[in-house]
Design a protein that fits this description.
The chain is of the alpha/beta class and 281 residues long. It contains twelve helices and ten strands. Helices cover 47% and strands 16% of the residues. It has an eight-stranded parallel barrel with strand order 1-2-3-4-5-6-7-8. The chain has a two-stranded antiparallel ribbon with strand order 9-10.
């Protein structure tokens, strides 16, 4: 079972150098927003983007939508500046997204920096390189503060030379799902690059839901509804989940069977997730 108690289907990116878009992202209907200091921000704007984020957190101390910040890689000067700036100003986000993770040591290093200031901050690691995929199990289990593990498919394919097709990335996604399952964290898939291809977005999202991914990243607000639609269970699954929960609660711990299937704790957990997803807008 995942460590997170939240249902986070959609993670919407917003560039850190576009502060006028922060509020639009917050009210877009996404489950979580990601203010991006990495890929979306040019080197010349890194410092001003960081200042924008700190000012946003200073202004909006109570946020209805979980707000993550994708910092620059800790293997870079900018990544270290990102973390130190948040600590020095006393405004940490709900979670830090650590990109381009190649080893468990990078995650442990991040935790060592922040743990003296805020123990319970969520860490979201992103696998984007062949090296990171090779070490995915140790990365996913490196610290108890990891809540999410994501897949950066675009960067990954740029290093492997593969395409973004479903078949070419199935192995990588499978390894990430397996690592997430071992460590009890939630796997989040990367973005669908074509903001005008809703059918393609929904099709891919349904496939990653079937694999066990708990969320998907988005690059535009118009993608949110498609992601959410793909996470909605069909009515037959909802009906079965209700039967499972009703029978389980009535049995009070006894052995039960629903529609000829023996019901154990993993099925109950799955049923509760189905009902949770079905009740979301």
């Amino acid at each position: 079972m995942s460590k997170t108690d939240h249902v986070n289907r959609s993670f919407l990116f917003v560039p850190g150098d576009r502060p006028e878009r922060f509020e639009k992202a917050r009210i877009s209907g996404c489950d979580a927003m990601i203010i991006d200091l990495e890929d979306a921000v040019s080197i010349s704007k890194k410092d001003s983007a960081r200042d924008n984020v700190i000012e946003y957190f200073r202004t909006f101390t109570k946020r209805e939508v979980r707000t993550f910040v994708r910092i620059n890689s800790l293997k870079t000067y900018f990544g270290l500046k990102d973390v130190i700036a948040f600590i020095d100003n006393g405004y940490l986000p709900d979670g830090i997204i650590l990109p381009m993770v190649d080893s468990a040591e990078e995650v442990i290093f991040l935790e060592e920096i922040i743990k003296k200031y805020k123990q319970d901050i969520s860490i979201f690691v992103v696998i984007e390189t062949p090296q990171g995929l090779s070490n995915v199990n140790s990365i996913a289990s490196s610290t108890s503060n990891i809540e999410f593990i994501g897949f950066g498919s675009a960067d990954f394919t740029s290093q492997t030379g593969s395409s973004l097709s479903w078949d070419s990335l199935l192995y990588a996604r499978s390894k990430i799902i397996n690592a997430a399952g071992i460590s009890g964290i939630s796997a989040v898939d990367g973005v669908w690059p074509d903001i005008n291809d809703e059918a393609g977005l929904i099709n891919e999202t349904k496939k990653i839901v079937d694999m066990g991914f708990k969320g998907k990243m988005a690059i535009h607000p118009k993608q949110i509804s498609g992601i959410h639609d793909a996470f909605v269970p069909n009515q037959e699954d909802v009906n079965f989940a209700k039967e499972v929960i009703d029978a389980y609660e009535a049995a009070k711990g006894g052995v039960i069977s629903v529609r000829g299937k023996m019901i154990d704790e993993p099925l109950v957990i799955s049923a509760r997730r189905v009902l949770s997803l079905s009740s979301r807008d």
